[in-house]
Amino acid sequence: MRIFYSEDHRLQHGRAELNDGKLVPCFEKPERAEIVYRQVAAAGLGPIQTPQDLGEEPIRRVHDGVYVDFLKTVWGRWLEERGDYDILPLNWIAPNMRRRRPSSLDGQLGYHSYDAGTPITAGTWRAAYAGAQSAANGAALLASGAERSAFALCRPPGHHAGTDFYGGYCFLNNAAIAAQLLRDRGAARVAVLDVDYHHGNGTQEIFWKRGDVLTVSLHADPDDEYPYFSGYADEVGEGPGEGANLNMPLPIGTDWASYTGALSAALDRIAAFGAEALVVSLGADTFVGDPISRFKLQTPDFLRLGAQIGGAGLPTLFVLEGGYAVDALGVNVANVLTGFVGR
Ligand code: OKP
Ligand code: ZN
Fold this sequence. Notes:
Elements lengths: L1 E3 L11 E4 L2 E4 L4 H13 L5 E2 L7 H4 L4 H17 L23 H7 L12 H21 L4 E4 L21 H11 L5 E5 L6 H7 L5 E8 L24 E6 L5 H18 L3 E6 L16 H12 L5 E5 L5 H16 L2
Parallel strand pairs: 1-4, 1-5, 5-10, 6-7, 6-9, 7-8, 9-10
Antiparallel strand pairs: 2-3
The chain binds {5-[(3-aminopropyl)amino]pentyl}boronic acid (OKP) and zinc ion (ZN).
């Protein structure tokens, strides 16, 4: 399995996020990718390489141009207008307000975001760009037929980022960029399977009206958990995308015994769809020890998770999403990949 990793992820190092009424140190921090890197190297899962620069085109295939330009330039504007400290948005669009893009910095920050947990820093664009390149490289490799599986070790994560919005620690939707690249390079139907603890609302939004990309997400019930306002079972897509979005909300406290049944149903749906390639949004925040999540998967369960996904027999790109129990994150992620390749 080929692994793509760029050290530029370190350039995203936010100071604080708003949590429980307090600014607390960011859960989404560079150490996460470092420990995953060390564990996949130690497990001998495959060669690790720096992604080739495929440019902005694969990013602009799924994200709005105005949004991409905003992400590229917002730090410079902030630095000049405000100062050298992290950017957090502070107001959003309420029902009956207009989705109209203001010209002011704070207005645009609110327009393009939906939470106060996702600081933009001096290096956010470069870090997110590098992660997107890892995902695009993994997809290009699968499309070439040279490998059946790859792992994009992306940081920051991506699945909460939509066409023109960021949030949930995510700026560019790495998994969606990969799925679109697979489509552009010949796969007629692509499936995205999201096993992160949180609903992949960005991925859902990007492919909402499309029938060529099936999006499936297993996650904590949004009635109890972030992102609260999407991820319900009755969200099935629209127009040509109707029936090509599957949400499987699971209760707080879900352990492997109940998770595996849901995963099996998800994989059945992917097989019935006729996917020619699979992108897995791989969050390991389903781990029992995760500091912000409430599922109960144990470290050996991640081997089972990988093996079960491997049973689908599809060309598969894993893309790193969440997982905040840093000490266990490396082995949990490596276990998924090890289980997948069948060792
Ligand atoms: C990103 B990913 C904790 C608040 C956390 C944001 C969670 C983002 C998760 N009380 N809010 O899906 O792992
Ligand atoms: Zn998550």
